[in-house]
């Protein structure tokens, strides 16, 4: 979110507060600003930034949400797998948003590898080490679309290294993939699945 958009949001919220009659409830601006800050800092895609999102079927949402929240609370590795459009990304983001997890980082797996490859360019501003340290230290790391990668030996080693560092540091990681359970081991490897 650009600083102009952020300033506009704050200005609109302040106008709402000033113009509200005494008997009318005003939006909780602290909650809204915290949600905007969370989404911006975490790199959440625009599609998932709506802090007022409510699941369409609360019962279908409740069980996976509670399970996901427990895994994250236990500093585990959460794999959200299944077909496209089933709400995996929304679930991951809402768990992090609702526990107010400052330091959450969202990235598509391919973006991680593209960012690392950019480190090899002449005059690169980052090194592989600094990128991996940043991702290794995020309070919660959400890696989306983990099936969308080249499955090269280098990518496999980097992904295993990153997840192993986070596992050893007891930092929760959420892996999201459009895969069936039987495909997950083949795509991610035994080292990651056994965690």
Indicate the topology.
Elements: H1 3-19, H2 29-42, H3 58-73, E1 77-81, H4 88-98, E2 104-108, H5 109-118, H6 128-137, E3 140-144, H7 153-168, E4 173-177, H8 181-188, H9 190-193
Parallel strand pairs: 1-4, 2-3, 3-4
Helix pairs in contact: 3-4, 6-7
What does this protein look like?
This protein is α/β, with parallel strands linked by helices. It is 54% helix and 10% strand. It has nine helices and four strands. It has helices at residues 3-19, 29-42, 58-73, 88-98, 109-118, 128-137, 153-168, 181-188, 190-193; strands at residues 77-81, 104-108, 140-144, 173-177. A four-stranded parallel sheet has the order 1-4-3-2, with helices on both faces. The longest helix is centred in the first third of the chain and has 17 residues, at 3-19. It is globular. It starts with a helix and ends with a helix.
């Amino acid at each position: 979110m650009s600083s102009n958009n952020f300033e506009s949001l704050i200005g609109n919220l302040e106008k709402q507060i000033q113009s509200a009659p005494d008997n009318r409830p005003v939006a909780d601006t602290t909650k809204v600003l915290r949600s905007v800050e969370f989404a911006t800092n975490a790199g959440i895609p625009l599609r998932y930034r709506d802090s007022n999102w409510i699941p369409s079927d609360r019962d279908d949402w409740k069980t996976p949400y509670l399970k996901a929240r427990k895994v994250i609370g236990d500093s585990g590795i959460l794999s959200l797998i299944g077909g496209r459009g089933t709400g995996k990304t929304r679930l991951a983001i809402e768990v992090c948003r609702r526990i107010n997890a400052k330091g959450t980082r969202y990235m598509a797996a391919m973006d991680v590898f593209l960012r690392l490859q950019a480190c090899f360019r002449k005059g690169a501003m980052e090194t592989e080490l600094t990128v991996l340290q940043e991702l290794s230290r995020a309070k919660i790391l959400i890696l989306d679309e983990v099936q969308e990668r080249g499955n090269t030996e280098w990518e496999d080693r980097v992904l295993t290294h990153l997840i192993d560092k986070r596992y050893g540091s007891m930092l929760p990681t959420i892996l999201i993939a459009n895969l069936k359970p039987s495909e997950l081991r083949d795509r991610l490897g035994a080292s990651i699945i056994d965690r």
